[in-house]
Structure formats: C-alpha cells, structure tokens
UniProtKB/TrEMBL annotation:
Source organism of this protein record: Coemansia spiralis
GO molecular function ontology, one term from the record: ubiquitin-like protein peptidase activity
Hydrolase found in the keyword field: yes
Designated name of the protein: UFSP1/2/DUB catalytic domain-containing protein
Record-annotated UFSP1/2/DUB catalytic domain positions: 127-333
Lineage: superkingdom: Eukaryota
PANTHER family (UniProt xref): UBIQUITIN CARBOXYL-TERMINAL HYDROLASE MUG105, UFM1-SPECIFIC PROTEASE 2
InterPro entries linked to this entry: UFSP1/2_DUB_cat
Pfam family, one: Peptidase_C78
Keywords: Hydrolase
Length: 379
C-alpha cells in the first residue's frame, strides 16, 4: 500500500484551470523538490570530498614540513666540509694535506684542513681576512641556488667570531639581533630577510621577490645580503664595479680595490703575532677584517684574502659551489682558491659588499636611512 509522505502533500486550494493543469503543477513541484534534494546531496558530497582532500593535503604538508625542518636543524651536520681561514698557510711542499680532527668527521664544524703549498717560481705573500672566518660550501640539496646564503654565512661567521661578549648582547647600549651561538641556517636567513622586508628594508627588492623566500629556492644577491646584515645591526656597504677597466675586458680596478682593502697600512687591528715567515720569502698574514662578498651575474663568491707576487696579484676566493670534500683524498692546491685577473674577462660588472669591523646598531634616523640601499660606483 502506497503511503503518502505528508511533506509531499501540496495544497491545491486556489489553483485554477482544469484538472490536467493541476496535475502538471503538482508534478512540477515534485520535480523541483527532487532536483533540489539531489542538488543538496551533491553539494554535501562535494564538500565532504573537498574536506577529505584538505585533510590529506594538511597531513602531507606536516610530513613535508617535518622532514624539511629536520634537514634544516641537522644542516650544520650534513653540509660539506667547512674550513677555517686560519688553516690556510704557506709551507714547503706542493701538495695540500687534508687532516680531520678527532672531534668529528667530514661533516663536522670541527674539521681541520691545512692548505699547504709552495710557489717555486715567484716570491709571494698571502694576506687573509679574520682568522675565525668559516668557509662553507654547498650541500647537495642547495647546489645551484643557495650560493648567496652560503656566502652570507661566511660573512656572519667572521662577524660572530670577532664580536666580543658585550657586542653579542648589546650594541651601543641597545639589544643586538646578532646570533650568539652559531651561524644561522639557510632557513633562518630566509626568515631574517623577510623580517627585514617587513621592517621596511629594500621595498623594491621585496616586491620583486613577492615578499617571500622562506622555503623556496629563490636566488638572492647583494641587496638581500645587505638587508639581512643591516637588520641584524651590521653596517654594510656596496661597491659597484659597473664596467671593465682594461681594454681586454678585465677588471683591474676591482683587484686594486680588494688589495687596498686587505693591505691598508692604516689598519691598526692587524694581529702582528699572526704574521708568519715561511721559507722562500713567503709570508702569511691575517688582518682583522671581514671577508668580502663578491657578486657577478648568476653567481657569488667570498673573497677571503689576496696573494701578492712579483708579477701577479690573485684574489683568494672561496666558491661555495665547489666541494672541498671532493679533494679530500687527493692533492688540493692553492689554484682551487685563486681568482686571477683574466677570470674577470667577459663579466660585465661586479659588486662587492663589505662590512665595518665595528658593530653599529643604527637607530632612529640612521636606521631609516639604511633601509634605502645605495652604492658607491668605481670608477
């Protein structure tokens, strides 16, 4: 027996026309109700599927975040070999001896490497930056895009090593943002850059990178390094070598500037106890200056010193994309660090970023001025 659902009873009072018209109206109402019911069920099913997809997406994101954070937190242990500038020195012999400390393996910050070489044909000396500078080279996962971050880490390692205890907590009586324990990871540097942008540093650059770099493989360059350092309270300066200064397309003005930076006779902070006389009229001298960030189109490096010879001047440059570990079982010659004048040929322009030896936390008007990046052009 067919039972009528009360919800299906339609009040036909006032319906005009013949019986067939009434029945057609009744059927039309029923069809409309059925269509609405099917539509509502479809919406509910769609919402349920969407929620299920969102739940799965969030779960995958959490897993991805976990492994990414784990890799970042362990980054100081799984990166390639790190050297200290103080371990680069001249001695007799034409091979480099890589020695590892007993405190850790090749992935450890405690790695020790002695770069031992002899130039047999010319008398020369080497001037190196702050001896506490760590040399970082890229891990496999960040090759090809993270050179800017690795070079920034080298700069920060020098700054942190040279800052005394008081400067690590306060600068000019104000709270310092300078890290006190270890060099920040790439992820931390990305977050620092975004914080600097939010505080108004380099608005144009922030716009170009869409105000976001954390968790991405976006390249950064000189201006982004400036923002990170300035936001930490480190006064940074940019020098533009905007064109070649020799007929053959090389950049001797760049080399002259770097040599003057490392050999400035007015530098009273050089440590005379670190001047080493080596057989063959060769010396290695450390100066209390930070390394230089060197940028050209598509890549960046860190200048850690200069090699001065009778007939040539070479920059000593660390390229984070060149693995020191790859040479750990063979001879590692100084040529891996030399950057010759001829190597600048074909490169339209260079930028150098250098930082003051003394920390200075800019406040008030000075801090606002530092948010707008400027540079000095040479020549």
């Amino acid at each position: 027996m067919y039972m009528v659902d009360p919800a299906d009873i339609i009040d036909l009072t006032g319906v005009s026309g013949d019986d067939s018209d009434g029945m057609e109206s009744l059927e039309g109402v029923k069809d409309a109700k059925l269509s609405e019911h099917i539509k509502n069920n479809s919406v509910n099913i769609g919402e349920s599927k969407q929620k299920s997809k969102q739940t799965k997406r969030r779960r995958l994101q959490r897993i991805s975040d976990f492994f990414r954070e784990r890799a970042i937190n362990l980054g100081h242990r799984d990166d390639s070999t790190r050297l200290r500038v103080e371990q680069l020195e001249y001695t007799r012999g034409d091979k480099t001896i890589i020695s590892k400390s007993s405190n850790g393996g090749s992935n450890s910050n405690s790695n020790a490497a002695a770069l031992c070489t002899q130039t047999q044909d010319i008398a020369s000396c080497v001037v190196l930056c702050n001896k506490g500078t760590m040399l970082f080279n890229a891990a496999i996962r960040d090759r090809g895009w993270a050179c800017g971050y690795r070079n920034c880490q080298m700069l920060l390692s020098s700054i942190i090593a040279s800052a005394d205890t008081s400067h690590r907590t306060t600068v000019n009586g104000a709270a310092s943002r300078l890290p006190t324990d270890r060099v920040p990871s790439i992820r931390a540097l990305q977050e620092m850059l975004e914080l600097a942008w939010r505080d108004g540093y380099d608005r144009d650059g922030a716009e170009q990178l869409k105000h976001r770099v954390t968790g991405t493989r976006k390249w950064i360059g000189t201006t982004e390094i400036y923002c990170i350092l300035a936001h930490l309270g480190v006064q940074a300066h940019i020098v533009d070598f905007h064109c070649p200064t020799a007929p053959d397309g090389t950049h001797p003005a760049l080399f002259n500037w770097v040599v003057e930076y490392f050999t400035d006779a007015s530098d009273e902070n050089s440590d005379p106890t670190l001047i080493r006389d080596v057989p063959g009229n060769k010396t290695t001298r450390f100066v209390a200056k930070h390394p230089l960030y060197l940028q050209h189109h598509g890549h960046s490096r860190t200048i850690v010193g200069v090699e001065l010879a009778a007939n040539a001047t070479n920059l000593l440059v660390f390229d984070p994309d060149i693995s020191i570990r790859a040479h750990s079982n063979s001879a590692l010659r100084l040529s891996h660090f030399r950057y010759r004048l001829r190597d600048t040929r074909g490169k339209a322009q260079f930028q150098i970023l250098h930082v003051d030896r003394e920390l200075a936390l800019l406040e008030g008007e000075g801090a606002e001025i530092s948010k707008d990046i400027s540079s000095k052009r040479v020549p």
